[in-house]
Amino acid sequence: PAPPPHPDSCKVMDIDREAWVGREGPVGRKLWPSGGHGPKAFVMASLRGRGGEAKAAPRFSKYSGIQEWRNAVALFVNISGKNGQVYPNLFADAFSKLTWFAQKYHVEETPIVCRLLALTQRQAQATSAMGGEGKSEAEGMAGSDGGGVGSAETPGDGGGG
Description:
By secondary structure, this protein is an alpha+beta fold. It contains 3 helices and 5 strands; from the N terminus they run ααββββαβ. The protein has helices at about 15-20, 40-45, 110-130; strands at about 65-70, 75, 90, 95-100, 150-155. The strands form 2 sheets. A 3-stranded mixed β-sheet has the order 3-4-5. Strand 1 (about 65-70) and strand 2 form a beta hairpin. The longest helix is centred in the last third of the chain and has 19 residues, at about 110-130. The two termini are about 25 Å apart.
C-alpha cells in the first residue's frame, strides 16, 4: 500500500469553494500570479481560499496537470503551447463542459479518471433532475465533489494533462 499523503498535501485539503464561485470568485477571469508564486503554485495557493497570494501553496506535483484535493479535482488544461501548437482540449456549452484529452497513461480504469467520470455522471444526474435547467454552482471548476462539471475523454496522445 502507498504511504498516506503528507499533511501539507492538497490531497488532504479542501478547495475553498466559496472563494472560487459567485460574483467575487475568479472563475472565468484571468489570474495573474503574485506573492512570489509561479502560475500553478499561485492557483494552488488560491484554491486554499481568499488571499491565496499570501498563503503557501500546498504540496502538489508541479509536473501533473491533475491535482487531487479531498473535495475536488483541479485540472490544468493546455489550450495552446509556447510555440503556438493547439491542443484538442475544448470547452463547450458556455464553458460548462470540457472535452479533455489526458496523458496516455490516464485511461478509464485509472482511479483519478474514474473519479472524474463519476463527478461528470453525478453532475449530469443533478442537471437532469432539475429539468435540464440546473447548473452546478461550481460551473467552470473541473471536478468538484460538491457538483463539478466537465467531461473527461482519455483517448488522446498526451496533449493535455
